Description:
Elements: H1 8-12, E1 17-20, E2 32-33, E3 39-40, H2 45-56, E4 60-65, H3 70-79, E5 83-86, H4 91-102, E6 109-112, H5 119-124, E7 127-130, H6 136-141, E8 144-145, H7 154-165, H8 169-173
Parallel strand pairs: 1-4, 1-6, 4-5, 6-7, 7-8
Antiparallel strand pairs: 2-3
Helix pairs in contact: 2-7
Amino acid sequence: MPTVLKSDSELVQPIRLIFSDVDGVMTDGSITYSSSGEETKTFHVRDGLAIKFWMGVGYDFSIITARCSEVVRRRAEELGIESINQGRSDKLQVASEILDRLNLEWGSVCYVGDDLPDLPVMRRAGLSVTPADGAKDICQAAHWILKSPGGKGAIRECIERILRAQGKWERIVA
């Protein structure tokens, strides 16, 4: 049976929750340590603004990452992200727990990931998205391959595209 391609509008209408990986999505994937051993990461300011817009329309945003980082905790706190799941390598299990808690279905989920640990969740999500520089297998599994690479506005591009297709972006801009 042939695959039926859905328009952006059809694909995103049920989306109410974004799960996002961190390294390679919200950052460029680099992990830098200072001479004192502190980890540093660089986040794009437009991603942060888009996350605030997303949550401002009443939707949920959740971070799921296998690594643990104080920098990620701090960034999530700055943005008001309450669902931050660090040190969890079984991302599918974490996502399932969150969906149960929020009483949501997989069809209402967008997952943004860039590498193999993200694949199980991407295969279940109603909308799977990867930055322009996502791994080959991830690009093959994604509904959308963004123009922006990880850490360079990929989350902004994803959120803006969803909200535009849902007819909500214009109200935000106004």
